[in-house]
Amino acid sequence: MLVALHDLNLAACHCDRLYVLDHGRLAAGGPRVEILTSRLPAEVHGVTSEVTTDPRTTAPQVTFLPGAPHPAETAEAPCHGAATRP
C-alpha cells in the first residue's frame, strides 16, 4: 500500500518504509529507522529537530526544537512524504 503523508510522526508510527520527496525529487528512502534522523528535517525543511524512539510503539519520534520553524510554516516546506507499508 502506498500512502502520501505530510506528518513524519504519523508516517513513522504506521509505515515500515518511508520515501521523502523534496521539490518532487526523492530525498530519502528506506526503513523508517534509517530514514528518520535529525539530519532529514534539517536537509529537507531547514529546521532543527531531535529524533528519539517512542517507548510504546518503538517508532522514531521527531520533535521540532524551540525556535525552529515547523515545516508547515516555512516557505520552503514542499516536502511531500510518501510512505509505504507492505
TrEMBL record:
<dbReference type="InterPro" id="IPR027417">
    <property type="entry name" value="P-loop_NTPase"/>
</dbReference>
<protein>
    <recommendedName>
        <fullName>ABC transporter</fullName>
    </recommendedName>
</protein>
<feature type="region of interest" description="Disordered">
    <location>
        <begin position="65"/>
        <end position="86"/>
    </location>
</feature>
